[in-house]
Specification:
Length: 308
């Protein structure tokens, strides 16, 4: 049996240790999404495991993922075959339907996306009128209370691999979903404005309404016009001034509450026109024989010219 050898120092003496080849053959690779650095399975196990006395009752998660250009909020539960998404909302929908053309990845956009997924889910389950949440966001701590026979929809926050620091944007999605009427267990200590054991609601409200962006716009416009033109070029192109940002988000929240449903785009009707074909059509027999005769005649002419 082939063996690998190495030296190990014990009490100042080098000892030779050997390991059989079976030791190296039994290496087990980690899960694919762990190898890709996409899933923390230790955290996922805690989020997915359900109590045994609840049997097959799904354990719902509010999954929040933030990319460079979009915010994704999904309500998900796990099955053996994989995760099942029952409702989803994206920040790019704010641009398409709710009148927010710019700033689709900041804290205010995260709040609006969380609000959208909450209202959309409750509308789907018939709980939208029963649990309305907070109509006018004030940044204060809020927990939905059960009302009547149907309890509020409960989920737990899933932030993935994102850093859960104080003021992080995933907590904006959490706050939006809670204000939208979902029951998500949380504490306010990670919201912007939490300091010395107390949440400053006014500071949190400024983030929800995008006023921190407006304040930075004003400072940059006064101190460095060129940098302002560079960083806020899309705001300028859309005609959005610092004074318009709060009103823009207020209108967005009102529009979400009025109609949170997602409408699928209708596909274009199929026409009778034949699809384009890339297959080379066959050459007819008469044409093929004509081409062959021309080639023969050309070959004969070249041969005669060479003899002369």
């Amino acid at each position: 049996v082939y063996k690998r050898q190495y030296q190990r120092r014990v009490h100042g003496v080098f000892l030779r240790a050997t390991k059989p080849s079976t030791y190296f053959k039994r290496f087990q690779v980690k899960y694919r999404r762990r190898r890709e650095g996409k899933t923390d399975y230790k955290a996922r196990r805690v989020l997915v495991q359900q109590d045994k006395n609840k049997f097959n009752t799904p354990k719902y998660r509010l999954v929040v993922r933030i990319t460079n250009k979009d915010v994704i909020c999904q309500v998900v539960y796990a099955k053996i075959v994989g995760d099942i998404v029952i409702c989803a909302a994206y920040a790019h929908e704010l641009k398409e339907k709710y009148g927010v053309p710019v700033g689709l990845t900041n804290y205010a956009a995260c709040y609006a996306t969380g609000l959208l997924v909450a209202r959309r889910l409750l509308h789907k389950l018939g709980l939208a009128d029963k649990y309305e949440g907070v109509a006018q966001p004030d940044g204060a701590e809020y927990h939905v209370e059960p009302s009547g026979t149907r309890r509020p929809f409960k989920a737990v926050l899933d932030t993935g691999l994102a850093r859960t620091t104080t003021g992080a944007r995933p907590f904006g999605c959490l706050k939006g979903a809670v204000d939208g009427g979902l029951n998500i267990p949380h504490a306010p200590k990670r919201f912007p404005g939490f300091k010395n054991g107390e949440l400053k609601t006014e500071e949190h409200r400024k983030r929800i309404m995008g006023l921190h962006v407006a304040a930075y716009q004003k400072i940059l416009k006064e101190e460095d016009e060129d940098r302002y033109q560079s960083l806020f070029s899309k705001y300028i192109a859309a005609g959005i001034n610092p004074a318009d940002i709060e009103a823009m988000w207020q209108k967005c929240h009102a529009a979400i509450r009025k109609d949170p449903t997602h409408k699928t785009k209708k596909k274009a009707a199929k026409t009778d026109a034949k699809p384009k074909s890339y297959k080379i059509p066959p050459i007819p027999t008469k044409v093929r024989l004509h081409i062959r005769r021309q080639r023969k005649e050309a070959f004969k002419r070249k041969a005669e010219e060479a003899d002369e």
